[in-house]
Amino acid sequence: MRVALHTKVRADRVEEYEAAHREVPEELTAAIRAAGVNEWTIWRSGTDLFHLLEVKDYPAMIAELEKLPVNIAWQARMADLLDVVHDYSAEGSEAGLPVVWAL
């Protein structure tokens, strides 16, 4: 499945956010892949971040990662840099941006 997400980096933390993503821990990228992600790309426009994921099952991936210490540490780091951390609700609402049109 493809999932598009929208998050926001704090205006005063853009450089730190980009620097963090130049050094994502290998243990975390391996865990993301093991949780079913084939691709994950993030684009930035100002403070808006747009993510596109190719993942087997997004809610299952979130559930798998949220118990791993490397991801817990990463999420804590990101929470300090982002205004909108996550647009997925654990209560079961749909993940990501709604599709408006596709070719």
The N- to C-terminal Cα distance equals 16 Å
SSE succession: EHHEEHHE
The top-level CATH class is Alpha Beta
In DSSP terms (H or I, runs of 4 or more residues), the helix count works out at 4
Count of folded domains: 1
What's the architecture in CATH terms? Answer: 2-Layer Sandwich
- Radius of gyration of CA atoms, rounded to a whole number: 13 Å
Coarse structural class:
alpha+beta
Question: How does this structure look, described?
Answer:
The protein has 103 residues and is α+β, with helices and mostly antiparallel strands. The chain contains four helices and four strands. The protein has helices at residues 14-21, 26-34, 58-65, 69-81, and strands at 2-9, 37-45, 48-55, 82-84. Strands 2-3-1-4 form a four-stranded antiparallel β-sheet. The longest helix is centred in the last third of the chain and has 13 residues, at 69-81. 12% of the residues are buried. The mean pLDDT is 91.
